Amino acid sequence: MPHRPSLRTSITLSLLGFGGLIIALNLLMMDRLHSGISSSAIADGGALRAEAYRRAVVFSLVEAGVVVIGSLAMWWGWDRCITRRAEHVRDSAERLDRGDTPDAPLAGHDEISRISQALHAAHMRLNHQAAELRAREERYRLMVESIPSMVFTCRNDVIEYANPAAVSLLGATSAANLIGRTPYDLMEPGEHAAARQNLEHLWHHGGSISDLEQRLRRADGQLVHAEIAATRFQDERGHALQIVANDVTARMEAEAKRKELTRELAEKNQELEHLLYVASHDLRSPLVNIQGFARLLDREWKYLGENLLNCPDAAARQAFATTEPKIPRALDYISAGVRRIDLLLEGLLRVSRLGRAALDIQPLDPTPVLAEVLDPLRFQIEEAEATIETTALPSCLADRFMLSQALANLLDNALKYRVSGRPCHLRISGRIEDGRALYDIADNGPGIAPDDQPRIFEIFRRLQPDTTPGQGVGLTLVQRCLARMDGRVTLQSTEGTGSIFTIDLPAA
Predict the structure, then answer these.
(1) Residue 27: which residues within 8 A CB-CB, separation 6 or more?
(2) Which residues are 436's β-sheet partners?
(3) Taking CA 108 as the corner, what is the angle to CA 11 and CA 126, rounded to the nearest 5 degrees?
(4) 3-state secondary structure 37-90
């Protein structure tokens, strides 16, 4: 680009040119006047014309001097008021362009002063923004270098930056061992195609990707399971990719271990349920024999007693009289024990059958299920003179049989464990909370002491074994039924006032 003259030079030359033009025009006019006067003077010898010519020359010289002095004065004023100030603004703009601090702004309210002041204000804003940008960059650098995630910056499939976490987790000696390589050099060969497809799509179309699972190879050959997120961004050099990888190896191993333990637990539960079924089923045969032989002994003892009472031998009658109270009592103990064991085995059978029952989880209206449960309990309800209050019940996701089993056992317990002399009242209500269907079965029974509440769901646990019949498996069955449907049962109880059992199931 050709060199342009400065503003001062341009103005000076313009003013000098203007003054020279005025002088040239005056000289041209004087020359024409001189020619006219010379012609007149020859014709009439006019001395007056010569005097006029002399005066005209003097006037022209004076005028030329005034023009020159005026031009110099204009040049000086222009240089002082405009040129120097304009060059000050230019120098400030050039210093600002180089990143240096511009000169102090010009004072005043004219246009050039305002431009100078605007440049200085822009410099202050740029300094403030640059300081903020440096602070942000420093915060970002500290964050990237301190987070436990691996962070890479890639451009054209080449790693340009790797943070300390990437160096540490990949077993590299320094970031220089990772910079210059491609991201695919760190991955398992069999996973290159999928990773390349995702990153190339991101490179060409922008946006971001996340939750990509990738296996990375450490420097020592070990595999690192990583969860990757990537984003395309723009800087002064164009597009680039920022890749963030989280080491989820421990989580993957824990998940695999959890699945293995879950599988083993399912197998153990299946074995336990099979054992319960076999034990409870097969043990009933010996019990039948014991019960039969006990009845046989009872009949034989009665027959023997009748014969001994009529026996003439006094010693035999005396021996029978001595043992007669003991043998029937012992037989009664045997029969009671057999009945107790039979009840326990029946409870075990119910629990084991429940674990093997197939589920059919579907949206379910519990109102007709409740009606089906209440129908077989009519005799107990009338016998207890109980009143049952029900409200609208929301739908849930459940198995019809399992839900009916849970409701039946809770209602049976409420009727069974009522307070004598107090009218029995049951209230069944429902509501929806946080996507769950909750059903409350409230009674006005004796309530449950705080110390007993944590143990009431244990199998064979009975709070009133001497006064209330049962096997002690009802609440255990309720808990098992709901657990198989992703539900649970909770208790709120005040001793002497009543209890509220709450069934919690997924809402439909």
Answers:
(1) 60
(2) 433, 506
(3) 95
(4) HHHHHHHHCCHHHHHHHHHHHHHHHHHHHHHHHHHHHHHHHHHHHHHHHHHHHH
Out of 3.20.20.80, 3.20.20.140, 3.30.450.20, 2.60.120.10, which CATH number does the structure's domain 147-247 have? 3.30.450.20
Residue 366: the pLDDT is 92
Distance of alpha carbon 361 from its chain centroid, rounded? 29
Looking at beta carbons, which pairs linking 354-359 to residues 24 or more positions away fall under 8 Å? Answer: 354/405, 354/477, 354/480, 354/481, 355/269, 355/273, 355/480, 356/273, 356/277, 357/401, 357/402, 359/399, 359/402, 359/484, 359/485
**Of the listed ranges 157-171, 209-223, 470-484, the one predicted with least confidence:** 470-484
Scanning 184-248, the segments in alpha helix (DSSP H) are 192-205
Give the Cα separation of 272 and 405 in Å (integer): 22
Q: Please, are residues 219 and 177 in contact by the beta-carbon 8 Å criterion?
A: yes
pLDDT digits (tens, 9 = 90+) for 391-427: 999 999 998 888 988 898 899 888 888 888 888 999 9
d(CA 275, CA 212): 45
Question: By three-state DSSP, how is residue 2 classified?
Answer: coil
Domain 359-506 in this protein, CATH class:
alpha beta
* Distance separating alpha carbons of residues 373 and 407, to the nearest angstrom: 7
* Eight-class DSSP state of 507: B
